[in-house]
Write a structure and sequence with these properties.
heterodimer; A: mainly beta; 4-stranded antiparallel beta sheet; globular; B: mainly beta; 6-stranded mixed beta sheet
């Protein structure tokens, strides 16, 4: 089954404790993105990647890092999480302009 | 800059009522337009899309027409069901070397039996 998976689905952490949210897709898509969803703001792009080893900032990249060492994986790294990064995070992949989304990761930073 | 504006929710309707969710956009160039739907506890999934002016996208009884003259892409359905309760996102996509997608804020729809 074609899908985008994210782990973990739910995470509670404390300020400053490094964390990684994994994202994997099995559709051989070149393009992958990370978004955060906040009430009233819709989805805002954090980072995107057009292919292996090619990444770029989206609209809200501060406080986040990404890497793309393999085509299927695109982890999101929070080196020192802060409470304003409490949000719902979505990974997405695409071959063209239609995106396929993962189920989301709900993060709470205390 | 490029942006998408959609009507604020929540929208509450009775089953079998007509639905319209307004969406307007601002973009340089010629974007493709989308409606994505998010059911409770799930990620977004594509509902319909249109890639050029006057195209009509349709799926599951929903439809939307790409209106370049009014820069709009309103979502319509003639008779909603309880199972249509979800959050609906209007979005545009621009091919800028990759595919940059800009989302509206989302409109929550509640359908009562």
């Amino acid at each position: 089954e074609a899908q985008v998976t994210q782990n973990p689905r739910y995470l509670i952490t404390v300020t400053g404790k490094k964390l990684t949210v994994t994202c994997s897709q099995n559709m051989n898509h070149e393009y992958m993105s990370w978004y955060r969803q906040d009430p009233g703001l819709g989805l805002r792009q954090i980072y995107y990647s057009m292919n292996v080893e090619v990444t770029d900032k989206g609209d809200v990249p501060e406080g986040y890092k990404v890497s793309r060492k393999e085509k299927r994986n695109f982890p999101l790294i929070l080196e020192s999480p802060s409470p304003n990064q409490t949000s719902l995070y979505f990974c997405a992949s695409s071959l063209s302009e239609t995106q396929y989304f993962g189920p989301g990761t709900r993060l709470l930073v205390l | 800059g490029d942006s998408v504006t959609q009507m604020e929710g929540p929208v509450t309707l009775s089953e079998e009522a007509c639905l319209t969710i307004n969406c307007t956009y601002t973009a340089t160039g010629y974007p493709s337009l989308f409606w994505y739907v998010q059911y409770p506890g799930e990620g977004l999934q594509l509902l319909l899309k249109a890639t050029k002016a006057d195209d009509k996208g349709s799926n599951k009884g929903f439809e939307a027409t790409y209106r370049k003259e009014t820069t709009s892409f309103h979502l319509e359905k003639g008779s909603v069901q309880v199972s249509d309760s979800a959050v609906y996102f209007c979005a545009l996509s621009l091919n800028t070397g990759g595919f940059k997608t800009i989302f509206g804020a989302g409109t929550r729809l509640f359908v009562k039996a």
